[in-house]
Structure of Lysine-specific metallo-endopeptidase domain-containing protein:
Amino acid sequence: MLPSLLSLLLLAHNVLAIPNPSPKASRLEKRAPGAQDYVIQDLWILNELGMRNIPSSPIRRINRWGTKIPEACVYEAGLSKHQCPLDQLDVFAVSFQDAPEDMDWLFCRCRDAKHSEGELIEEVGRLPVAVRQRVRYIMLFTDDHELGADSSGNDLIMRELNPCVIHHEAGHCFDDNGSRSGSAEFRAAIQKDTCYLDSYSAGAAQEEVFAEAWAQVFLLQQFMNRTGKKLDKNLDCMENQLAVVNSQSVASSKKPFEKALKRKWGGFILRKDLIKSGVPA
Ligand SMILES: *[C@@H]1O[C@H](CO)[C@@H](O)[C@H](O)[C@H]1NC(C)=O
Ligand SMILES: *[C@@H]1O[C@H](CO)[C@@H](O)[C@H](O)[C@H]1NC(C)=O
């Protein structure tokens, strides 16, 4: 999950009067970092520092689906935060050139979404194929509900759309049900470090939601490794987290497509059955 703009602003407001953390806590005073101990307030600056220049895989084809909708998309479209009538939900399968010809990614986009189908496909194509293959469906809804994006661990549920937000959410899918963020190594790294990467990670980790801290470090790791650039900040205070996420992700995120690792599709609902049950489809 990602914070709404509002909660980010509130968070920013709350810490406004607090001076920057001193990352140099002595080894004797070791403690898990606190909510105010972070390197950077807003990691989304990486969008402008190079994330938008990461190339996107070209696509081979788009197949439009007229008769079936993934159950998971029907569910999300019905939530009050999305409210997408199903006759407004476009379902299409995209084949990317960096994966075999018979492999498709399934998208569900509500027609009231702010971002276009082309933008959505471009952002998904920017994900390394080894990360993208852990994503089942990609959904896009309108983004005026103060919610950034979510991941179910299988699916990307986008409202806000940019390279950072999609790498963060895909990071949750790549985390494979917390197998990386929930590892003893990552927990130990947080204990050893004296800061988190950003205000969002710090806030989430204070609530023991380590998957969020992990996904932000994963985003930074992808930025550094794929653009060859560095964040103009001293990262010593979070060196252990960075080292763990690197060892958990660098090699595995660079692998070519592997069919066995492609996340399997779930159930589907026929539009005509929805109409029969009284739901406009
Ligand atoms: C994820 O982990 C939870 C708790 O460990 C487990 O109940 C669930 O079945 C797992 N889901 C998947 C998709 O592996
Ligand atoms: C990315 O990671 C790989 C594997 O660890 C490494 O060989 C390569 O130099 C890294 N690239 C950059 C730009 O950091």
